[in-house]
Write a structure and sequence with these properties.
The chain is mainly β and 281 residues long. Helices cover 5% and strands 32% of the residues. The protein folds into 2 domains: 109 residues, Beta Complex (Metal Binding Protein, Guanine Nucleotide Exchange Factor, Chain A); 114 residues, Metal Binding Protein, Guanine Nucleotide Exchange Factor, Chain A (Beta Complex). The protein is built from 2 helices and 21 strands. The chain has a 5-stranded mixed sheet. It has a 5-stranded mixed sheet with strand order 19-20-14-13-21. Keywords: Lyase, Metal-binding, Zinc.
C-alpha cells in the first residue's frame, strides 16, 4: 500500500498494488507545471487507486486537460485514465519506498539548459518506442541580453530578472518534493530589486506551511503552474527554475537536504551534497 498527498494534506489518496512503470519527463509542459528540472511519474493500475480525501479541492489546469492541482497549495494531483485503466501519480507526492525506480528519461530534447543528466538511464529525444503520441510543448521565447524571462504553464503569469541570479540550488527536503510533486526542487535566488512582474501577479496564490518558519510555495491559480515567491523581509525572490523560459546563465551549485531525499532518486554527478543546509547558508 502506498499513500500520497499534496503539500497541505487536503488531497490524499492510496494505491494498492505494484507500480507498472516509472519515468522522468523533461518536456517543457512538465517543467512549467512542476517548476522543476523534470517531472517523475509512476504508473499504477486504476483498480488499486482510491481517493481518501480532498477531491473537492482539485481543479483542472486551464492549460492541459491531463493536469490538475490542489487549489489550496498548488501541488500536482494524480491523473486517472479509465479508458486505459491506469493511474498516473507524481512520485514527489508519494510516501515511503515505492518498490520501483525510474527506468528512463523522455523528451530530453526539451531538457532545461541549466540541468545536466548525470545518471546512466536510457534517454529518449521524445516518446520512448513504441509509444506514438502528439508532442506538445511551449513555444520557445527569444532570449534578450542581460534579462532572464519566465512564465507559468498557461503564460498568464510572466516575469523578468535583470542580471545574473545570486545562486541556484537543488533541494531534496520533503516539503520541496511534495510542493513541486517532483524528485527535488531547483530554486533560483535573485535580489528583489532585479525581479519584476510582466503580467499576472494578481493571479498568483501562495501557501505557507503552518508549522514551517519560512516555507512557502506560489502558483498560478488558473493553470496550477509554479510561480516565483517574493520575500521582501529578506530582500530576495525565490524562482522555481522550471518556470524559466531563457537560460539564467547559472547552474545548480549543490544538493541540499539530501538526508530527506526520495528513496527512489539516487543523486549522481559531482555537485556537493549537504545533509541539510550548506555552511553559512
Amino acid at each position: 500500500m502506498t499513500k500520497g498527498a499534496c503539500l497541505c494534506g487536503t488531497v490524499r489518496y492510496e494505491i494498492d498494488g505494484p507500480f507498472h512503470a516509472m519515468l522522468h519527463c523533461h518536456c517543457s509542459m512538465c517543467r512549467k507545471f512542476h517548476g522543476s528540472a523534470f517531472a517523475t511519474a509512476a504508473v499504477a493500475p486504476l483498480s488499486g487507486f482510491r481517493w481518501l480525501a480532498g477531491e473537492h479541492a482539485i481543479r483542472a489546469s486551464c492549460a492541459s486537460r491531463h493536469r490538475s492541482f490542489c487549489t489550496t497549495c498548488g501541488s500536482a494531483t494524480p491523473l486517472l485514465a479509465p479508458e486505459r485503466q491506469f493511474a498516473l501519480v507524481h512520485a514527489g507526492s508519494l510516501e515511503g519506498d515505492l518498490g520501483i525506480a525510474p527506468e528512463f528519461h523522455q523528451f530530453v530534447r526539451f531538457k532545461a539548459p541549466w540541468y545536466t543528466i548525470t545518471d546512466s538511464l536510457p534517454q529518449f529525444e521524445e516518446w520512448p518506442p513504441p509509444s506514438q503520441a502528439p508532442v506538445v510543448s511551449r513555444p520557445a521565447v527569444p532570449p534578450r541580453e542581460g534579462v532572464t524571462q519566465g512564465s507559468c504553464l498557461c503564460g498568464d503569469v510572466a516575469f523578468e530578472l535583470d542580471g545574473p541570479p545570486l545562486r541556484m540550488m537543488n533541494c531534496h527536503c520533503s516539503r520541496c518534493r511534495r510542493g513541486r510533486s517532483a524528485a527535488h526542487a531547483t530554486n533560483v535566488f535573485v535580489a528583489l530589486d532585479t525581479f519584476r512582474w510582466v503580467r499576472g501577479d494578481a493571479q498568483v496564490a501562495s501557501y505557507r506551511v503552518p508549522e514551517a518558519r519560512r516555507f512557502t510555495v506560489a502558483f498560478c491559480t488558473r493553470c496550477g503552474g509554479a510561480a516565483p515567491r517574493l520575500s521582501p523581509e529578506h530582500g530576495f525572490a525565490v524562482v522555481p527554475a522550471g518556470t524559466l523560459d531563457t537560460d539564467p546563465g547559472v547552474r545548480p551549485e549543490a544538493h541540499i537536504f539530501t538526508a530527506s531525499r526520495a528513496s527512489w532518486f539516487p543523486i549522481t554527478g559531482d555537485l556537493p551534497q549537504y545533509a541539510e543546509l550548506p555552511p553559512q547558508a
